[in-house]
Amino acid sequence: MDTSEVEFLAEREHVKIIPNFTQDKIFLISGDIGPFSAGLPVSIPLWLAVNLKQRQKCRFLPPDWMDIEILKAKKQEEADSRFFTEMSSPFYMEITQLLLQWGTDDIPKADEIRTLVKDIWDLRIAKLRSSIDVFVKSEASHAKLNYLTLMEINTVRLFLTKALNHMHQLRLMTSGRSQTQQSQNF
Amino acid sequence: MLAEKALDLIRELHRTSSGTLSPYNEDKIRQVLEEMKTLFEQNKDKAHSVAEGQTDQLSSIQLRHAGIQRNKRCLLAYLYNRLEQIRKMRWEFGSVLPPDVKYNMCEQEVQWFNQYNRLLANYMRSIGESGGLDLTQDMKPPKTLYVLVRCLLDHGEFETQDGNIILLKKNSQHYLLRSECEHLIRQGVLEHVVQ
Amino acid sequence: MAAFSTAGESVNSYFNIDDILASQEKIPCSFNVDVAAMGYLDQSTTNVDISVGTKLELPFWLARYLYRGTRSIVSLETPKSYREGYRHILKADPNVVDLHRLGPFFYLFGGKLISFQLPDADDIASILLKTFQGRFRRIMDGSQNALHTDLTGQVSMLDEQERQLFAAGQQGLHDFQKWENRESEKLSTSVMIANHRKRKRIGVSTQPS
């Protein structure tokens, strides 16, 4: 899966904006959007929010979790926990990226937020790698990881599937040797 | 060593990098086929004497048979992996391959490419509404309908869907429908300018 | 373009290039019978036949044809890289071993050896698994961490399959970093075409001159 595909999926998430125009409901296959009243907050898909922002038609309202204090607490929670903690949004990384790319002026302390979110990401990725290592060493046949997000999984997808394939081949040799025979017979 | 030439073909594949196709090694293939033929003739010969009770020939027959099988595997793998590479090239370069790539293909490979081309074109024409669907387009989710592009080389005139003719001159910039220019970007004629 | 992966990419495939190369790795064999007219395989003599007791290093694909349980044409020995001595070193610290030098297809060829049911097959199987498990963390961290440091040292010590794994890790990292720098939305020239151009520019022609 390509990162741009992950982003595409994330763009369906709703965010709040304040439009500077008024417009009736728009009816789309994926659902109705609006109505828009100038100055009144409205929740719309991220892709449209970015599009409106690019044309200076709206102002972003940062999601509740995009707040220095909340993120600091989240970072602490993530650092303290052995397991992955549940993120406020399964697309926290993508939403942060897009909102901060187009609307730094709408989001208070944008730089600090960017750093905090990245810190949380780094903590989680480090945890993910340790889990993968433990998994490979333990020779377990499955593992359960809760609360991983799509983007996190996506960064290790190719590597992990290749590694597990390789492990599988090696383990077939130790356990049921006859099963590997087939591949040796050319 | 037995089947050494056939291995050379495999090593040749191993060295080939993406974006290229090494010249079809007709000479080596002929040599491998000759070795196979020799081994086969020898075995046919000896098989008669075994049938007449001379079992001391069995081991050498097995050995030569292994050589034939090995040569066969290498030859088929050589042809198969080249076809795979050619197929990938259809998706990257488009329906017309660069002359130096084409030059390195054997006649059957050219035929295979043409047939694959036709199959793909027919299939793409048959799906989607009104006039088919180009599967080689929108490899990433499109962000915008129009994109800003800069010409990387002189490409000559280009007719847009609405009938305008623009001149794609090196370093000139244009605002074009994404669907119209995606192929030219992939082929390195245009560069996508992201604001 | 994982969507277009083919059977040729699985190491179990008849057409797989790595598997063909791995099956060319040599095994020490000694002949239990005379083999008529095949003396040319032994480059140390000019004899027409191979005689009983001749020791030769034969590639796996040939050895497996000649080694069939009882009444085999040849007897086999475990190749050096998989014997007790190396197994001991690998057990002590798998990370210091240059697996590429030990056999560029250390795991793949090792797996083939095991199919011979040699007396130490179980030990070989377990050392293959343990070696990979022991080296895994460094391969993962190396491929995920250092974008700007020189990795050639580490990579040169990896076996072919480990190298592919390393490359997969790097690709994941590159993709993410490109996305993070907002470069992933940019349409770009196909990698294959770019390679083709580059080769043409530096004058590396694939055509015979």
From TrEMBL, chain A:
<protein>
    <recommendedName>
        <fullName>DNA replication complex GINS protein PSF2</fullName>
    </recommendedName>
</protein>
<comment type="similarity">
    <text>Belongs to the GINS2/PSF2 family.</text>
</comment>
<feature type="domain" description="DNA replication complex GINS protein PSF2 N-terminal">
    <location>
        <begin position="3"/>
        <end position="59"/>
    </location>
</feature>
<dbReference type="InterPro" id="IPR056784">
    <property type="entry name" value="PSF2_N"/>
</dbReference>
<dbReference type="GO" id="GO:0000727">
    <property type="term" value="P:double-strand break repair via break-induced replication"/>
</dbReference>
<keyword id="KW-0235">DNA replication</keyword>
<dbReference type="InterPro" id="IPR021151">
    <property type="entry name" value="GINS_A"/>
</dbReference>
<dbReference type="InterPro" id="IPR036224">
    <property type="entry name" value="GINS_bundle-like_dom_sf"/>
</dbReference>
<feature type="domain" description="GINS subunit">
    <location>
        <begin position="65"/>
        <end position="170"/>
    </location>
</feature>
<dbReference type="Pfam" id="PF05916">
    <property type="entry name" value="Sld5"/>
</dbReference>
<keyword id="KW-0539">Nucleus</keyword>
<dbReference type="InterPro" id="IPR007257">
    <property type="entry name" value="GINS_Psf2"/>
</dbReference>
<dbReference type="GO" id="GO:0071162">
    <property type="term" value="C:CMG complex"/>
</dbReference>
<dbReference type="GO" id="GO:0000811">
    <property type="term" value="C:GINS complex"/>
</dbReference>
<dbReference type="Pfam" id="PF25005">
    <property type="entry name" value="PSF2_N"/>
</dbReference>
From TrEMBL, chain B:
<dbReference type="InterPro" id="IPR021151">
    <property type="entry name" value="GINS_A"/>
</dbReference>
<comment type="similarity">
    <text>Belongs to the GINS1/PSF1 family.</text>
</comment>
<keyword id="KW-0539">Nucleus</keyword>
<keyword id="KW-0235">DNA replication</keyword>
<protein>
    <recommendedName>
        <fullName>DNA replication complex GINS protein PSF1</fullName>
    </recommendedName>
</protein>
<dbReference type="GO" id="GO:1902983">
    <property type="term" value="P:DNA strand elongation involved in mitotic DNA replication"/>
</dbReference>
<dbReference type="InterPro" id="IPR056783">
    <property type="entry name" value="PSF1_C"/>
</dbReference>
<dbReference type="InterPro" id="IPR005339">
    <property type="entry name" value="GINS_Psf1"/>
</dbReference>
<comment type="function">
    <text>Required for correct functioning of the GINS complex, a complex that plays an essential role in the initiation of DNA replication, and progression of DNA replication forks. GINS complex is a core component of CDC45-MCM-GINS (CMG) helicase, the molecular machine that unwinds template DNA during replication, and around which the replisome is built.</text>
</comment>
<dbReference type="Pfam" id="PF05916">
    <property type="entry name" value="Sld5"/>
</dbReference>
<dbReference type="InterPro" id="IPR036224">
    <property type="entry name" value="GINS_bundle-like_dom_sf"/>
</dbReference>
<comment type="subunit">
    <text>Component of the GINS complex.</text>
</comment>
<feature type="domain" description="DNA replication complex GINS protein PSF1 C-terminal">
    <location>
        <begin position="143"/>
        <end position="194"/>
    </location>
</feature>
<dbReference type="Pfam" id="PF24997">
    <property type="entry name" value="PSF1_C"/>
</dbReference>
<keyword id="KW-0158">Chromosome</keyword>
UniProtKB/TrEMBL annotation, chain C:
<keyword id="KW-0539">Nucleus</keyword>
<dbReference type="InterPro" id="IPR038437">
    <property type="entry name" value="GINS_Psf3_sf"/>
</dbReference>
<dbReference type="InterPro" id="IPR055221">
    <property type="entry name" value="PSF3_N"/>
</dbReference>
<keyword id="KW-0235">DNA replication</keyword>
<feature type="domain" description="GINS subunit">
    <location>
        <begin position="85"/>
        <end position="180"/>
    </location>
</feature>
<comment type="subunit">
    <text>Component of the GINS complex.</text>
</comment>
<dbReference type="Pfam" id="PF05916">
    <property type="entry name" value="Sld5"/>
</dbReference>
<dbReference type="Pfam" id="PF22466">
    <property type="entry name" value="PSF3_N"/>
</dbReference>
<comment type="function">
    <text>Required for correct functioning of the GINS complex, a complex that plays an essential role in the initiation of DNA replication, and progression of DNA replication forks. GINS complex is a core component of CDC45-MCM-GINS (CMG) helicase, the molecular machine that unwinds template DNA during replication, and around which the replisome is built.</text>
</comment>
<dbReference type="GO" id="GO:1902975">
    <property type="term" value="P:mitotic DNA replication initiation"/>
</dbReference>
<comment type="function">
    <text>The GINS complex plays an essential role in the initiation of DNA replication.</text>
</comment>
<dbReference type="InterPro" id="IPR010492">
    <property type="entry name" value="GINS_Psf3"/>
</dbReference>
<comment type="similarity">
    <text>Belongs to the GINS3/PSF3 family.</text>
</comment>
<feature type="domain" description="DNA replication complex GINS protein PSF3 N-terminal">
    <location>
        <begin position="15"/>
        <end position="67"/>
    </location>
</feature>
<protein>
    <recommendedName>
        <fullName>DNA replication complex GINS protein PSF3</fullName>
    </recommendedName>
</protein>
